[in-house]
Amino acid sequence: MGTGQAVFLGWMENANSSSVADARAQAEEEALAALVSQYAGALYRVAYSVLRNAGDAEDAVQEAFLRVLRHREKLGEIRDHRVWLIRIVWNVVLDRKRRIKTRPETDDVAELARVLPAEGLSAEGRAAAAQHHSHVLTCVDKLPVKEREVLLLSAFEELTSVEIAAVLKITESSVRSRLFRARNLMADLLNHARSQR
Amino acid sequence: MNNQENLVSDSTSGAIKNSQATPFSVDATLRLIATLPPPAGLEDRIHAGLLAQLDADHRREGSGSRVLAWPSSRAGDSRWVQNDLLRGAAAAAIVAVVLGGSWGISARFRPANSAKGIALPNRVAGPGGFSSAGAMRTPQTLHGPVVLPALTPLPSAPFSPVKSKTLKKPLLPSASGAQNKAETKLSPAVDK
Fold first, then answer.
1. B9: which chain A residues are within 8 Å (Cβ-Cβ)?
2. What CA–CA distances, in Å, run from B5 to B53, B124, B146?
3. Is the Cβ pair B49, A62 closer than 8 Å?
């Protein structure tokens, strides 16, 4: 084979490889779009449970998917996309939570009253419910970090204790023991708050 | 403790039971948040954001592309270039060869140690020649200028005519009298 022929073959292969790369990129983008459609809501809820602000939670989900976009070539290697995405958004949320200053409880009440569903409740009942939820969440914030993380994730029915362990990178027995401690501490905190009222 | 509001933790079921009549508990609050409906248009906004990021990436790649798209691989002969492990091994081998070669050169041609002083060989006098006889050359040192204190006339000793008389008297009657005269005119404090 002559040199010119070899170069020509090289260029031909280059064209073929570019079309293959284009097809692969398109497939990755389609897979990413499917992930957005499937898991955006779940990720939003995870983000909201920590940030408690609709705008911040949406930004966190957006940032998480942007991270996925940057590492989209790894999508084929991931076994459980849901847990992988939740872990990404969890890290994003914790980063943001560290940067955001703690909001006062009144802000949480207003936000919860706006966001939480209140079918069959009067205006007064809705306000009372929002205040109660806000108070509970304030007590959740007083928990130690490890216990708080497990408690928040345990509220998501779609996450088993094995998956929570995968998200937090701990063992399943640690998840169980932290959850037990978190519930006990929450009971103490709520009782203490009620006795002070 | 108020029994009505007592929260009981059940470790087996993992649920907090609230015996109070209030419809809200800790789990209820957390589950309410965990089942929140996402805001309308969330997916569309995320899609739009991802597309904008993709466009920005393509633009960046386009601006940074080469003038000539060199064929990255040819059939058959450059398959190994695509293998990361082989490429790493090749790079390591190149680095090892370069380092080994430079070390070999530096080991063979080690530069002489730079001495602080130059040891001169002892000069051996040839037959019939002169020798220094162990004499050492010492460099000439220059004495600095010596400043003498200025002459001050004695306050209690006025000009004595006796001294001037002796000075006026010629010391030697010979022809060097003129020289002696000149010396007497000079200041006596000048030290040669």
1. 180, 183-184, 186-187
2. 52, 115, 110
3. yes
